Amino acid sequence: MREKGYFISFEGIDGSGKSTQIKKLARFLESLDFDVIITREPGGSVGGEEIRNLLLQGQVDRWSAETEILLFTAARRDHLERIILPALDEGKIVLCDRFTDSTRMYQGMRGPNLRNLVDMLNEKVINHDPDLTIIIDIDPKISLKRAKSRKTAEERFEDFGVELQMKMRKGFIKLAKEFTNRIEVVNGHQSVDKLAQHICSLVKAKLS
Fold first, then answer.
1. Cα Rg, the chain, nearest whole Å
2. pLDDT for 26-74, tens place per residue?
3. What is the mean pLDDT of the chain?
4. Rounded CA separation 190/20 (Å)
5. DSSP string covering 54-105, please?
């Protein structure tokens, strides 16, 4: 077991297959005797899950982008304090479905200077980036169809439509070029098993 934990976030547009790949990676890492926890954002902690309900349900115009940034940051801080940092201190591998990069995209790209606000709050309040971020890249039309087929109450961001998803896809690819030290982009159009093999090999190499 590593003396220090390892923090991996998964990013991508809605319906890109993050949850499925996180579960497969967790099983692979556990087979190598790593202690793994799976968590998500917004949410993860009790307080974070309460804020999640506020953010992901209701009408599209329920919150302004500025208000969403503040709510996401509050949820993330609680999640970090109560779940992520304690797990890393115990030497565990944390697999998180979304982190600050999603806020940089979904809120930071919706208005002038909002990305600066996200980065400022991240620096002052969160001040902790993943060791590795895996972006699953996929056609927005395919991913949105998948996401809407789930038919859950948490479809507020899917309801913004395919135009937002297309903008977010371009944004994630640009973000990968900005943070080359920690972001890896993988092809989400592979079969589920081939994509899992690719991700497992990538993570194993990083942990080595």
1. 16
2. 999 999 999 999 999 989 999 999 998 888 777 777 888 899 999 999 9
3. 89
4. 13
5. HHHSS-GGGS-HHHHHHHHHHHHHHHIIIIIHHHHHTTPEEEEE--HHHHHH
CA atoms within 13 A on the CB side of 168: 31
Instruction: Tell me how far apart the alpha carbons of residues 7 and 16 are, in angstroms, rounded to a whole number.
Output: 20
Average of pLDDT values for 63-86? 94
Amino acid identity, residue 47? Answer: G
